[in-house]
Amino acid sequence: CAGPRLGAAMMEGLDDGPDFLSEEDRGLKAINVDLQSDAALQVDISDALSERDKVKFTVHTKSSLPNFKQNEFSVVRQHEEFIWLHDSFIENEDYAGYIIPPAPPRPDFDASREKLQKLGEGEGSMTKEEFTKMKQELEAEYLAIFKKTVAMHEVFLCRVAAHPILRKDLNFHVFLEYNQDLSVRGKNKKEKLEDFFKNMVKSADGVIVSGVKDVDDFFEHERTFLLEYHNRVKDASAKSDRMTRSHKSAADDYNRIGSSLYALGTQDSTDICKFFLKVSELFDKTRKIEARVSADEDLKLSDLLKYYLRESQAAKDLLYRRSRSLVDYENANKALDKARAKNKDVLQAETSQQLCCQKFEKISESAKQELIDFKTRRVAAFRKNLVELAELELKHAKGNLQLLQNCLAVLNGDT
Amino acid sequence: MAAEREPPPLGDGKPTDFEELEDGEDLFTSTVSTLESSPSSPDPASFLAEDISTNSNGPKPAEVALDDDREDLFAEATEEVSLDSPEREPILSSETSPAVTPVTPTTLIAPRIESKSMSAPVIFDRSRDEIEEEANGDVFDIEIGVSDPEKVGDGMNAYMAYRVTTKTSLSMFSKSEFSVKRRFSDFLGLHSKLASKYLHVGYIVPPAPEKSIVGMTKVKVGKEDSSSTEFVEKRRAALERYLQRTVKHPTLLQDPDLRQFLESSELPRAVNTQALSGAGILRMVNKAADAVNKMTIKMNESDAWFEEKQQQFENQDQQLRKLHASVEALVCHRKELSANTAAFAKSAAMLGNSEDHTALSRALSQLAEVEEKIDQLHQEQAFADFYMFSELLSDYIRLIAAVKGVFDHRVKCWQKWEDAQITLLKKRETEAKMMVANKPDKIQQAKNEIREWEAKVQQGERDFEQISKTIRKEVGRFEKERVKDFKTVIIKYLESLVQTQQQLIKYWEAFLPEAKAIA
Q1: Helix and strand tally (H, E) in chain B?
Q2: What was the pLDDT predicted at B157?
Q3: Which of A162, A311, B270, B281 is the most exposed place for a label (fewest CB within 10 A)?
Q4: CA atoms within 13 A on the CB side of B400
Q5: Window from A128-137, A213-222, A245-254, B99-108 with minimum mean pLDDT
Q6: Residue B83 — φ and ψ, nearest 5°?
Q7: Cα of B129 to nearest chain A Cα, Å
Q8: How many domains are contained in chain A?
Q9: pLDDT digits over A325-341, tens only?
Q10: What is the nearest CA distance from A409 to chain B, expressed in angstroms?
Q11: Does residue A193 lie in a domain region?
Q12: What H or E segment, with its residue span, contains residue A44?
């Protein structure tokens, strides 16, 4: 079944509050605050369509760069093509010294679809109002997940577009411009296995390499910091997820309570029926606010933490690559010494050693800048999101408070 | 003196009129109205020993509140009888029977108090004067508190003792403030006695809190964890609500057993309330028998009011159960939210520690603190969710069960009347047969039996009318109480929600500048 199609204004009308969307927009983009409008190259996802198994993103580019045939154009891409682009960066030796923007997670509507299905099965066991209410809720949930996945894919592209080196990447330009299918079929089993071993080796290596204490204080500090930070962000992200989910469950309960109160109110013959109906209305309204609180916490806190979980992993990968190149450099040094000692293939050894040295120094230089940028981005993103989180929490609490006080005024006035 | 009193205006006995009377929430106005029931009406007299027919003055439409003659009896009792009075004993001695005796035809007619022959008219009048005096004073002035749960004893014989404190200006009590120590089975015993006296004549006796073998075992065994303290608190609150509801009932308040429960320092142990005792098992068997009977009795309902009301209560029951389930889910999720918020707070604190940007690190620590405080808030809110909202609902689910029980008793009463009529018919047939067969002594016997059963039929009819009237009044009172209860509690609950939001605003307002300070 075709899911909701996101219009150019990103579905301004479909949600209860248009501000929900724009905040989300701001939220995720704000994760990388320096991705401001840059006339040279602007990328966004202007539309998206959800089909049964896949999501089709419309990638829209505006650029004044001479590399492109037109100033403004769009193509349709799927998730696998984003992964292809990301992997091409990873595999490119030239980019070893950069933090590669983390790949967007795969769109996952399974849970939401399951819930919608269960609701359909249980239709007989609830009243029409309840069913409609729950259906609306689940549809809103589906929509929220959809918007999130769009935003995450967009952030990836924006990060690439904002990076001074990566934005010039040829594959990136092809991705943006080539209006045919890139035919990047997902990795087959063999390739997936290769990947798996590669990662294993990397982590084994990581153990070995990280044992080597770095001469450079900066990197030594970064390594200790990143290791610990990454773990703690992982934990915080998981706990934040659980917290927002509980919040949502409680909001769902308000829904059912509202329905029950409504039923009590309509069937009651005494003067308390008005009372019940008013309280039922209150629960319905307050539930919307509570659901919003949960959604905003999810966006500003959980998503922020999740994103920096991935970014800190990318930063760790950078450090790993630098360590690898350091090891290569040291090995090349040893080989050179051996060659000199034996006086055999010295030139070869010298060239090799020089290359390794250059590579290591190049990586170190760009890595340093990348890590400094990473910190700047991180601090800015946290600041923006924490401020917005606090502002939203306040807004919702005040809204809730007013609802409750208004209701109480009416109820007390009646009795 | 009594004769000079003007009876308060009464309507034609419809339930609504009774409600009007009670508007003043004056316990004693209702008593006063009942005191003025006409002595000529057949109903009350049959309940009481003959001397009480001195019921006062004033032609009164017979329908109203005549069943409260029993109230009169107790009104007198409160004035005259001390705890040691021999007159009390017949009532007290009946304490063992209610728990065990099933509702048989003989006990269907209320008076255990028949043996108690009270009321010289003078006493009667005097008590009415005093009652009227108090009626002009404070409204329904009695406050019950259940507090200070204390564990007594050790091991499996241990039990919790609760302090029951009464504050009152009612003159039926010897002091204005007093307290006693009671254990859970005492409460059950009280309910048992009240139920046996009043349920089958149509009074809605508030049900006692439920037993919990698991809960109590934990307490006995000495598990000092939060779940057993929660259990004790839940029970304490439930016992308090139970007593408050019971004393609110004008008829029950007059009951000497209730007074003894509140006042007397030593209470005979109610052993028959133990779940697995012989009496307990007998009760279960009787309940089952009742259930079967309910299914097989088909009553010709002549009064649509009863059918309507029964349906209403059925619907209410359903909806309340649903609502209760949703609120219980809310309590559960709120507790979960609290736990998860606490876990997140700790995690955020750790993250703040490892963050190497100073300002951000500080802000994250602040966030952790805010979340910790919010966790506390959630806990408190869950507490309110439960004790105000959820417990209100479960109380009313049980109350409605009691109401349904009372309706069932009416059906049984009708059945008894029917049966008497059928038997009378048979006896008449027997008499006719004997006449034909010309057996003089058998005829005499038959005539005697006919007389006996004629009386029983009359009694059956009176009982049925009585219980119907009582139920109408009780249901009216119940509905009023229900409306008041729900309104009061729900408003209190909403106020708890208001408080939570106000606190949230405070916490986030304090945090916002910290977040903005990240440079």
Answers
A1: 18, 3
A2: 81
A3: B281
A4: 20
A5: B99-108
A6: -60, -30
A7: 33
A8: 2
A9: 988 998 999 889 989 88
A10: 10
A11: no
A12: strand A41-50
- DSSP H helical ranges for B59-165: 69-80, 89-93, 96-100, 105-108, 121-136
Extract the runs of DSSP E, i.e. beta strands, from A55-148: 55-63, 72-77
What's the domain range around A352?
Answer: 208-215+225-414
Q: Which residue of A has its CA nearest to B327?
A: A257
Indicate the DSSP class of residue A101.
P
A266 reaches B (C-beta below 8 A): no
3-state secondary structure of B149: strand
Whether A246 sits inside 8 A of B340 (CB atoms) is yes
Domain ranges of chain B: 137-272, 301-518
**A258 in the same domain as A182:** no
Structure tokens belonging to residue A243: 């917290």
H-state helical runs in B199-277: 213-221, 226-248, 250-253, 256-263
Q: What ipTM is given for this predicted complex?
A: 0.83
Q: Looking at residue B313, what is its pLDDT? A: 92
* Sign (positive or negative) of CA dihedral B197, B199, B200, B203: positive
**pLDDT single digits (tens) B185-223:** 899 999 999 998 998 888 999 999 988 777 777 777 766
Indicate whether A149 and A51 sit together in one domain.
Answer: yes
CATH top class, domain B301-518: mainly alpha
Show residues of chain B in contact with A387, CB under 8 Å.
512, 515-516
If asked whether residues A118 and A173 sit together in one domain, one would say yes
Taking the C-alpha atoms of residue B160 and residue A324, their distance in angstroms, rounded to an integer, is: 70
- Chain A touched by B178 (CB under 8 Å): no
Residues A234 and A374 occupy one common structural domain: yes
- Confidence category of residue B27, pLDDT binned at 50, 70, 90: very low
Q: What distance in Å separates the CA atoms of residue B398 and residue A140, rounded to the nearest whole number?
A: 39
Model pLDDT for residues B127-168, shown as the tens digit of each residue: 444 444 444 444 568 889 999 988 888 877 888 899 999 998
- In the predicted model, what is the mean pLDDT of residues B394-421? 92
Say if A9 is an interface residue toward chain B (CB within 8 Å): no
Least Cα separation, residue A344 to chain B (angstroms): 49
Angle formed at CA B159 by CA B388 and CA B174, multiple of 5 degrees:
75
Q: Are A400 and A408 in contact (CB under 8 A)?
A: no
B326:A253 CB<8 A:
yes
State the Cα–Cα distance between residues B194 and A164, nearest whole angstrom: 86
Distances (CA, A) of A40 to A5, A62, A95: 29, 8, 21
Written as one letter, the residue type at A399 is: G
User: Any idea what the CATH number is for the domain that residue A91 is in?
Assistant: 3.30.1520.10
The two three-digit tokens of residue A392, written as one number? 């939203």
**Binary contact (A256, B326; C-beta < 8 A):** yes
Q: Which two tokens stand for residue B141?
A: 């002035």
d(CA B381, CA B363): 27
Provide the pairing of β-strand B159-168 with A41-50: unpaired
Q: Identify the CATH number of the domain defined by range B137-272.
A: 3.30.1520.10
- Asked if the model's pLDDT at residue B21 lies above 50, the reply is no
Residues 78-137 in A contacting B (C-alpha not used; CB under 8 Å): none
Tell me: pLDDT of A346 over 90.
Answer: no
**pLDDT number for residue B294:** 59
Q: Rounded to a whole number, what is the distance in Å from the CA of A108 to chain B's nearest CA?
A: 24
CA distance B156 to B159: 8
Q: Which amino acid is at B217?
A: T
H-helix or E-strand spanning residue B449 = helix B440-516
Half-sphere exposure (CA, 13 Å, Cβ side) for A358?
8
Contacts of B505 (CB under 8 A, 6+ apart): A394, A397, A398, A401
Q: Which residues 445-484 of B are in CB contact (within 8 Å) with A?
A: 479, 482-483
Phi, psi of B356, rounded to the nearest 5 degrees: -95, 0
A-B CB pairs within 8 A amount to 161
Cα atoms in the Cβ-side hemisphere of radius 13 Å centred on A227: 12
Asked if residue A342 and residue A403 are part of one domain, the reply reads yes
